[in-house]
């Protein structure tokens, strides 16, 4: 007899993408961790050629590890190279601390006051 975890059917990371005004919003839910970063990477890379502004809404992101952080930074570089603006909103205190501790937050500093807000 096998026992399954109560949240076994819930994917570690799910995305909801929609357009609002001049921006494409990618709402992230779950964990941006090793083994699941490709979901976000593939979705945002698909959007870059057709969007001038992409907003990652991290309201429902419960966890991010170093690979998740590296994915966000890589997407930022890809977007910037293509002339697309990538911004982050609604970082949880834990995710904000990860950005601060690793000094990655300085990459997004230009937007911090205006677009990074807590839930």
Structure write-up:
There is one protein chain. The chain has 119 residues and is α/β, with parallel strands linked by helices. The protein has one domain: 2-Layer Sandwich (Transcription Regulator spoIIAA). It contains four helices and four strands, in the order E-E-H-E-H-E-H-H. It has a four-stranded mixed β-sheet. Helix 1 (37-47) runs parallel beside helix 2. The protein is globular and about 30 Å long. The N and C termini lie far apart (42 Å). The relative contact order is 0.15. Mean pLDDT is 84; it is low at 110-119.
List the helices and strands and how they pair.
Elements: E1 13-20, E2 23-32, H1 37-47, E3 53-64, H2 66-81, E4 85-89, H3 93-101, H4 109-115
Parallel strand pairs: 2-3, 3-4
Antiparallel strand pairs: 1-2
Large-scale geometry: globular
| Beta-strand proportion | 25-35%
By CATH reckoning, the class would read: Alpha Beta
Terminal Cα span: 42 Å
What is the helix content? Answer: 25-40%
State the CATH architecture: 2-Layer Sandwich
Strand order across the largest sheet: 1-2-3-4
How many domains? 1
Instruction: Characterize the largest beta sheet: strand count, sense, and whether it forms a barrel.
Output: 4 strands, mixed
Give the radius of gyration.
15 Å
């Amino acid at each position: 007899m096998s026992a399954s975890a109560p949240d076994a059917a819930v994917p570690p990371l799910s995305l909801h993408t929609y357009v609002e005004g001049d921006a494409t919003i990618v709402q992230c839910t779950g964990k941006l961790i090793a083994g699941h970063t490709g979901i976000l990477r593939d979705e945002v890379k698909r959007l870059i050629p057709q969007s001038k502004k992409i907003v990652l809404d991290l309201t429902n992101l419960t966890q991010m590890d170093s690979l998740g952080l590296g994915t966000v930074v890589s997407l930022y570089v890809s977007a910037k190279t293509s002339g697309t603006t990538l911004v982050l909103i609604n970082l949880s205190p834990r995710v904000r601390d990860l950005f601060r501790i690793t000094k990655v937050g300085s990459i997004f500093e230009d937007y911090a006051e205006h677009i990074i807000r807590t839930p």
